[in-house]
Hints:
Radius of gyration: 19 Å
Order of helices and strands: HHHHHHHHH
Structural class: mainly alpha
Shape: elongated
Amino acid sequence: MTGTRPGRTAATKQKLFDAALRLVGERGAASVTVDEIAAEAGVAKGTVYYNFASKDALVDALLRHGVDLLAARLKAAEEQEDTSAAMASLVEGMLGFFAEYPAFGQLLVSELWRTPGQWHDTLSLLRDDIVSIVRGQVQRLADADRLPEGVQVATASAALFGTVLVIALDWQVFQPERDLAEVRDSVLSLVRGLRPG
């Protein structure tokens, strides 16, 4: 019986993550209760506390889990030798992730720029993790003299991340009929348009 416990625990945690993500994405983390998360996941309230010390710990773990999933997708760009292919992989990875987990994108938008936010410190660290992956690809563009003069890599990296996040949410909410390739190509056209003359 003890051999099945880790699998059940992982499955329960995933149900709690999914439930919390749906609720938090809709209403923001501060307004969601443990009772609501438990009900949405179809588990007893005690199950939430068994797996996480508190709602805050659950949301913190949710944020970390989502960023880990996103980071894994973005790191695929590092395998591309060609800078254009790497940028396409990076943009497609971000768009694909937010298409699959739109509530996570909503959570980032609602909580990351909330001042002061309860999870601001965690989100700041996690944002830095993602932006550092983006920065690696933007640095490659800079090294190839493919950034306009005077554009700093750090600024371009944050701008690219924010742009793709907002475009992904806009796509999901207002233009869901568009496919991923079309949205990706639009973003890449914008990025190419920023090259030096």
